[in-house]
Amino acid sequence: METITKIVTRFGGVSLLPVAVALLAFVLIGAPSSWVTLTIAGLAMGMMIFLMASGLSLVFGLMDVMNFGHSAFISFGAFIAASVLAGLSGWLGSDLIILNIAALFLAFAAAILFGMAAGWFFEAVIIKPVYKDHLRQILITMGALIVAEQMILALWGGAPMTVHRPQFLEGSFLIGDITIEVYRAFAFMLGLAVYVALYLTLNRTRIGLLIRAGVENREMVEALGFRIDRLFVGVFMLGSALAAMGGAIWAGYETLITPALGGEMMIVVFIVVIIGGLGSIEGTLLGAIMVGLMANYVGYLAPKLALTSNMILMMVILLWRPNGLKPAVK
Amino acid sequence: MSVSANTTGTKVVKTTVLLIGALLLFAPFLFQDTRALEVAARICIFIVLVASYDLLIGYTGIVSFAHIMFFGFGAYGGAIALKQMGPGWDAVVVGALAGVAVSLVVAVAIGLLSLRVKAIFFAMITLAAASVALVLASQLSNFTGGEDGITYRAPSIFKTATKLMVDDDGKVMRIFGVKMNGKLAAYYFVFITSFVLFFAMVRLVGSPLGTVLKAIRENEARAEAIGYRVVSYRTFVFCIAALVASLSGTIYAIWLKYTGPDTVLSFSIMIDILLMVVIGGMGTMWGAVIGAVLMVIAQYYLRDLMGVAAEATANLPLLPHLLDPDRWLFWLGIIFILLVYFFPKGIAGTIMAKGEKS
Q1: A154, A283, A315, B173: which could form a disulfide with A277 (CB 3.0–4.6 Å)?
Q2: Which of chain B's residues have a Cβ under 8 Å away from the Cβ of A310?
Q3: How far apart are CA A150 and CA A145, in angstroms?
Q4: Residue ranges, chain B, pLDDT below 50
Q5: Residue A268 pLDDT exceeds 80
Q6: pLDDT bucket at A15, cuts 50 / 70 / 90
Q7: What is the pLDDT of residue B356?
């Protein structure tokens, strides 16, 4: 038994969990082609959720601040990107791929810029006065969420909004008898790129070193003369921008968005953050992939259970590891 | 932050609450239209619901977003029992007990599982649990009626056609112009049960148990060090709050004669409860009364006012959209944030602290 544990730990420990889930699902599903399709869908979904959740997790790890209004950034990102795409529908319809990419880039840029600006505002106005007071943090960010959701309703109305996808992201390609939607592959690649960038920033740069040190022991870093509150503003803005970007990608994935989107995603994001363990990017990625895979597998195997699968997953993991799979916060 | 019993502010708050109680007691006679009675009954039920939430957030410092779930359990318990067993008191009792049983089991499970962890974890877990309950209620449609909900009949004494008292001609008797019919009986059923539940909670927080809860809120480590089992106390109060919420849900189900996800489980009601408790004042019980009254009245009457304001500003950009009657939560959200910043004790807490020094 001990040797098995050692081997598992050597190959990644809890990081193997998604692989185990995927293998189990392979046995249960039986048909390889649908398994591959589901796995890719799950991975793509996981990557999008990762984008939305990573900021929340980092912010909590660094500053012990839980932002219940995080989902507002997701909704705003989705709606802003959708509006930009709708405004540039002429570019999207054209055959020039350059214009398509430009429209997509502008949409994402708008969402990200908004996320950064709103994140700065949020941090400075809403959260700064209530550091270290969890109860009031929860209340205030909840209040901000209410206001933000109402603003979305006032600006875009309550009706569902169609999202125009760029031409080159439509459709799907075939490998053997496996169909892969282009947009899913795109979302997966984008999420992966962001993860790699985040990972490298956190582990290979001086800023990343400070962030990690701040998560570990904030007072000590401050005692060494670093302005961790400024760093925190940066992390908060980054997290909000990532959430907005995640929302933008999600909008393209769903193609029909409603103002309820933020609320729905918030639950998923919370579950991911809890499963992954607060404060770590790796944990968040792990949690997001688990949730994405589970949602797709369970949705295929037992559609009735699909809605509660995330909850059950969270319960099981919390029973096993009360602090999540890979917590950075002790 | 103990508030001594005899400040002038405390007297003001208690007098206000007493006045509200009197108004609610005589509501059918004072405000003789159906909408006002609707408002009064809703206020009664929300006072209980908000007070039970105050047990958690104000007295013990637990932030739960699952409170609406327990309310929903109670409401659906009553609704399903009344639908399946027909209108009768046996159905009410069975439904209430079933709701309470489910609530207690879920509360114990959530409590033991997650009250050990940080407040923030707990808030997130309860939020997830509540959302699952909402989804289940709309999915299990052959049991809960799905999105449409369940319509059923209340016990026959509460029917509008029921005559409680008849005059010499055999017609419904009127006292001060109020018809002595089933609607009145239903209102007083709501009022009395709500009053009993509220009074029980006031007694509870005044008991030694209430003191322990406050100790846990103020300093968890110290309470543990003195020898109180913090997790047990938290789980216990979580269960008590769940029980009261469930019972108030059943009362609401009987009053409304309709139960659906939007009326008893939706997240917006949870937000209402949160707003009521914070606006009224956390940790005072009286605050629950004030918060519930203000919010429910705002819900019913502020919208009319906003409609007028929206029309008046129709030519300006964006403003009419924000003043639209449906956007009333926008303004309440802003008020809420300002309150949490500047008056974290809420209305009741702030007034009660007045005159403390003298």
Answers
A1: A283
A2: 128
A3: 8
A4: 1-3, 358
A5: yes
A6: confident
A7: 61
Q: Phi and psi for B171 in degrees, rounded to 5?
A: -90, 170
Q: Is B278 on the interface with A (CB under 8 A)?
A: yes
Element (H, E) at B179: strand B178-179
Show Cβ contacts of residue A12 under 8 Å, excluding neighbours closer than 6 positions.
none
pLDDT attached to residue B53: 92
Q: Residue B219 corresponds to which tokens in the numbers above?
A: 């300093």
Query: Using an 8 Å Cβ cutoff, are A232 and A123 in contact?
Result: yes
For the segment A18-43, the average pLDDT, to the nearest whole number, is 84
Interchain CB contact of A155 with B (< 8 Å): yes
Give domain status of residue B211, yes or no. yes
Provide, as residue numbers in chain A, all residues whose Cβ is less than 8 Å from the Cβ of B110: none
Q: What is the predicted pLDDT for the residue at B355?
A: 65
Dihedral pair phi/psi, residue B258, rounded to 5°: -150, 140
Q: Is B358 a domain residue? A: no
Rounded to 5°, the CA angle A295-B261-B144 comes to 85
What is the per-residue pLDDT for B177?
67
pLDDT score at A64: 76
CA distance B256 to B258: 5
Of A139, A140, A318, the CB nearest to B113: A318
Q: Look at residue B19 in the predicted model and tell me its pLDDT.
A: 86
Count CA atoms closer than 13 A to A33's CA, side-chain side: 7
Residue A204 has pLDDT above 70, yes or no: yes
CATH of the domain at B340: 1.10.3470
For residue A89 the two structure tokens come to 């529908």
A302 touches chain B (CB under 8 A): no
Most confident range, picked from A126-130, A162-166, B54-58: B54-58
Looking only at Cα atoms, what is the longest distance across chain A?
63
Which among B337, B7, B147 has a CA at the least distance from the CA of A142?
A: B337
- Contact yes or no for B87/B103 (Cβ under 8 A): no
Lowest-pLDDT range of A127-131, A165-169, B187-191: A165-169
Identify the pLDDT of residue A17. Answer: 80
Q: Is B117 left (phi over 0), alpha (psi -120 to 50) or beta?
A: beta
Per the domain annotation, does B106 fall within a domain?
yes
Q: State mean pLDDT over A227-243.
A: 88
What percent of chain B is predicted at pLDDT more than 90?
Answer: 18
Please name each of the domains of chain A with its CATH number: 44-320 (1.10.3470)
Residue B302 domain boundaries: 8-353
Q: Any chain A CB within 8 A of the CB of B139?
A: yes
Chain A residues closer than 8 Å to B322 by CB: 150-151, 154
Q: Is A188 on the interface with B (CB under 8 A)?
A: no
Indicate yes or no: CB of A307 within 8 angstroms of CB of B136.
yes
* B2 domain-assigned: no
Integer Cα distance of B324 and B298 in angstroms: 14
Count of domains in chain B? 1
8 A C-beta contact, residue A314 and residue A52: no
Residue B272 backbone dihedrals phi, psi, to 5 degrees: -55, -45
CB contact under 8 A, B125 and A310: no
Put simply, whether B57 touches A (Cβ < 8 Å) is yes
